[in-house]
Design goal:
Blueprint lengths: L1 E5 L3 H13 L3 E5 L2 H10 L4 E4 L8 H11 L4 E5 L4 H10 L3 E4 L4 H15 L6 E3 L5 E4 L4 E4 L2 E3 L3 H12 L7 H7 L8 H16 L9 E4 L3 E4 L5
Parallel strand pairs: 1-2, 1-3, 3-4, 4-5
Antiparallel strand pairs: 6-7, 7-8, 8-9, 10-11
Helix pairs in contact: 1-5, 2-3, 6-8, 7-8
Amino acid sequence: MKVLVVDDEPKIVEIVTAYLQKAGYMVESTDSGTQALAMAQSHDVDLVVLDLMLPDMNGLEVAQLLRETRHVPIIMLTARSSEADVIKGLRTGADDYIIKPFSPRILVARVESVLRRQVPNHADEICTDDGKIKVNLMTREVRCHGETIELTKTEFDLLEVMIRHPKQIFSREQLIQTTRGIDYEGMDRMIDSHIKNLRKKLEVDPKSPHYIKTATGSGYFFTEVSA
């Protein structure tokens, strides 16, 4: 699949391109909003990563014009971090909104998530090695020990990013970026609270978890139970 990166910071373009290519995507880039519109129309672009502050036109205007002609998924990647900016970006038609500075790995995960919603794959299921937890990424159904577990949107989003990348440690800040549904203030403690609730629902003994582990001083990661 092809991703168009629209940003006037060469270092950002270089980093995003490298991580997306490593994940298997074809990548094109431009620093011009006008050129981005032309490329999105004439090229077989599957998703656009769009900065809001471009030299020739506002990224919001690019998104609006793009929405008028085709429904290509858009992820806004910008330093504009106010609540008003986020709301405006999403209401303009963005499928996701990521604030700079950002984690390239989280960006790739969000690209995967947005594209997965565009192209349904009902076989897209992740299962732990012991078979006790099954997560269907399309239906957002979670089964634990044979029973369906009800998760909130935020709980599922946290579980999804960790189970897709087992044994990778995610800082609280990285987990914040994966979950758009949490308020921005008081985030660190909120993440801890959501992790605590996840453990109550998935772990046999939440105080001694087997799946969702704490990396002291670093964050959290997902691992499987030993056979």
